[in-house]
Amino acid sequence: MKNISQHITYKEATKSNTAIKYGIDNTPTNYELSKLKDVAENIFEPLRGRWGIPIAVTSFFRSKALNKKIGSASKSQHCKAEAIDMDADVFGGITNKQIFDFIKDNLEFDKLIWEFGDDNEPNWVHCSYVKGNNRKQVLVAYKETNIFRIKKTKYKYYE
């Protein structure tokens, strides 16, 4: 397979340096592949159409084994082929805040997350799409240090 959508290749959707390093299979099933296409067509392609410039896909599909290896949440939507992480800073021309605001104001989505950064700009944007079951949750990810001085990722609603 060459492309998931017009502007996302199969390789972009499944590539992981961690999977390569540890020999982890990161191949989606046909069902997961259809869900990747839904996310690409309903989230990524409208962004590309809006600005007409490249936007980096920093994480898309993750097998359960890969997800566990990187220490991500066990219920991550990346494992269900329902989420994409994007970073406009990689290629420039637009900002992560611009893609966050465009998704929030114009697209159907399940979860949209302002990933870390500061009050003006997220470090990257996470967005999930679940065909026929989108909750339109808008969240901000931040780190909080617990009493053992361990930083944990927390989420709050975007205001």
Can you tag this structure with a few keywords?
159 residues, alpha+beta, Muramoyl-pentapeptide Carboxypeptidase, domain 2, six-stranded mixed β-sheet, 5 helices, 6 strands, 22% strand
Fold and architecture overview:
- This protein is α+β, with helices and mostly antiparallel strands and 159 residues long.
- It has a single domain, classed as Muramoyl-pentapeptide Carboxypeptidase, domain 2 (2-Layer Sandwich).
- It contains five helices and six strands, in the order H-H-H-E-H-E-H-E-E-E-E.
- The protein has a six-stranded mixed sheet.
- The longest helix is centred in the N-terminal third of the chain and has 22 residues, at 30-51.
- It is globular and about 50 Å long.
- The N and C termini lie far apart (41 Å).
- The model has no long low-confidence stretch (mean pLDDT 95).
- Helix and strand run: HHHEHEHEEEE
Low-confidence stretches: none
- The fraction of residues assigned to DSSP E strands is 15-25%
Output the structural class. Answer: alpha+beta
The amount of helix comes to 25-40%
Largest sheet composition: 6 strands, mixed
Mean pLDDT: 95
Give a count of the beta strands, DSSP E runs of length 2 or more: 6
CATH topology: Muramoyl-pentapeptide Carboxypeptidase, domain 2
Count of separate DSSP helical elements: 5
Question: How many angstroms separate the termini?
Answer: 41 Å
| Order of the strands making up the biggest sheet | 1-2-4-3-5-6
Q: What is the CATH class designation? A: Alpha Beta
Query: Which word captures the global form?
Result: globular
CATH architecture label name: 2-Layer Sandwich
Radius of gyration over alpha carbons? 15 Å
Total separate domains? 1
